[in-house]
Amino acid sequence: FQIDAITAYNTSSPFPHLLPPDHLICPLPSSQNPWSLPPLCPPPRQSSSSSSSSSSSLNDDEEDDEDEDPSPDCIFTSQQFRSSQGLSVITSPYLASVLLPALSDTSLPPSLPPSPGPSRVPWKIQPLPGRGMGLVATSKIQKHSRIMLGYPVLVVRLDFINGGRYSSKKKREMLDEAVDRLGGGVKKKILGLARSGQNKGDGVILDVLKTNGFGIEVGGEQHLGLFIEGSRVNHNCRPNAFWRYVPSAMAMEVVALRNIQPGEEVAHSYAPLGYTHEERKAVLRQWGFQCRCALCSAPPAERELADSRRERILEIHQLLSKASDIQSSRRIDQLVKEATTLIELEELHPQLVEYYVQFAKAYMMINDLKNGRHYIKKADEMWLFYGGEEHENVEGMNELWATLEEAEREAEDD
Ligand SMILES: C[S@@+](CC[C@H](N)C(=O)[O-])C[C@H]1O[C@@H](n2cnc3c(N)ncnc32)[C@H](O)[C@@H]1O
Predict the structure, then answer these.
(1) N or C, which end of the chain has less CB nearby within 10 Å?
(2) Where are the domains of the chain?
């Protein structure tokens, strides 16, 4: 199983052998050290190496790979993080340094308070048939409003988990230590996320991470973030919510895609939007469960209709990528309208971001710059909403604007 995805010194460490030689201690002057305990850096195995592309897992101790990363993964802990919620990180010293600006509570914008405060949340966590615990709305939730705000308790570099630089035993010890450093209350909450059947013993933290971790990027590298309440949001193939990550604050927001009525479950999609039933099944198998959302439990005819619409949406994407062959603005208008309607029928609204970009490119290919501008603007607005101001495609959008503006200048010159 391949999964995608920060702290003071504990003298009672159960792993004294993990204590690093001097040169492995993160070299921060103590006055600037944001971590409540000294980082703990067990040396990686001599002959093994890291590899995010490796197929190794915790059960595969003998993995070797060509790219060698000489830096160790260390355990960093801040017990003060977010009004003393606490945070442990397992990553390289360099990547941990990337997180430093996000650690302080005082630099957070007003929209991202360090703790939820006394305000009442519009949901509760309760058992749901066939889906374990889940989030259920207790009052009406407005479209596009924030449903939940959370900060991670654990962030673990994916390469640490999937790579072969540490033995399975060492990985488990480090994960246990990272959680122990957070104190009994947080540890209990983390263990409370374990699947029934998974006892609280060996390897349980890894299992909790695999089934609940959110993929987040730190310094361009994938990490898994564990958010206690966010972990309770189930999957739905027609989601009514999505999650948005704000890297500079390490904040996870769950946001409503549409109005949600009291009693409705709040769920987001763990699989890429637009996949067919079989494609979703394959992705969710990796998460270790069989989906029991309304669409997956619907009669075959309903699922087939959804599949055929999703296949057609993708087909239109491909047709539009060859818009220069079409050369008919009427035909492009038709395809744009058809894709928009199908995306709405399938309730895949976040997919519109990608499609608006495609519509813009198609119009630009046939020199319809007015429509090109219209859809770039719409895509930009949607990227901002779905991805936040720090969204991953800021550069892509800037390039698209630059291409359009150049084409507009050329058209004016002509
Ligand atoms: C991130 S957790 C969500 C919270 C979880 N239900 C709980 O009780 O803590 C993911 C797990 O929830 C269950 N789950 C989530 N969405 C589901 C769905 N649509 N159908 C069935 N099980 C689901 C699966 O067991 C999955 O491994």
Answers:
(1) C
(2) 16-114+151-232, 300-413
